[in-house]
Specification:
The chain is of the alpha+beta class and 208 residues long. Helix content is 36%, strand content 26%. The strands form two sheets. The protein has a five-stranded antiparallel beta sheet. A three-stranded antiparallel beta sheet has the order 6-8-7, covered by helices on one side.
């Protein structure tokens, strides 16, 4: 009888241990550049939903911090995560994973910086109201040396811009858009530039 009880306990412990191991999850932490609004965060999360089994998704649009957990047995790599961020239209700045077994992996800074060379695409929130705003925003951004393509959506307020990272940066592009009178996520238009806008273009100013 005692032997039977002991065997049963051992079997149960083995089952619990196996279950715990199967539930082991890796925790990924990525800093993402280009998240300008809740819509951007939604787009990023939607793209990562393609990874079946993803849980605990957290996105901070102010800092660009993005984290989630994923089944350890699927052995998701940092390279896969970085590629998925890029497919969503954003740029991974740093990437780190805490494996279920305690091991920590980080993307090499040098390798990450190489990805910012050449043509890159970014999504940035730019305030505006109408077609006139669209023309003004795209003209200002398109005039920056190194910009190859730019568009702005008046519904989402998102400017999508492609540029040569060796010639300019998203910060410089945002500055020029702000000079044209439109607030961006990181650069507020000067009050005088905002006042010069036509009545229909006087959008609600962004809060900083």
């Amino acid at each position: 009888m005692k032997k039977s009880i002991i065997v049963s306990v051992i079997v149960m412990l083995m089952m619990v241990t196996t279950a715990v191991a199967q539930e082991g999850r890796d925790k990924f932490m990525v800093q993402v550049d280009g998240l300008g609004c809740p819509f951007c965060a939604y787009g990023l999360e939607k793209k990562f939903k393609e990874f079946k089994g993803i849980k605990n998704v957290k996105i901070d649009i102010e800092t660009g911090d993005f984290s989630f957990s994923y089944p350890a047995e699927k052995a998701l790599t940092l390279t896969d995560v970085e590629k998925q961020v890029e497919k969503a239209g954003y740029t991974p700045i740093t990437a780190k994973v805490e494996r279920a077994n305690g091991k920590i992996e980080e993307a090499a800074t040098a390798e990450m910086s190489k990805k910012t060379q050449g043509t890159v695409s970014k999504n940035v929130m730019v305030a505006g109201n109408c077609a006139m705003c669209e023309a003004r925003i795209t003209k200002a951004a398109g005039a920056v040396k190194g910009v190859s393509d730019v568009s702005w959506d008046k519904d989402t307020k998102i400017m999508k811009v492609s540029f040569d990272a060796g010639l300019t940066s998203i910060q410089e592009i945002e500055k020029e858009v702000a000079v044209a009178g439109h607030d961006t996520k990181k650069h507020q238009a000067h009050t005088d530039d905002y006042r010069k806008l036509p009545a229909c273009c006087k959008y609600e100013r962004l809060k900083y």
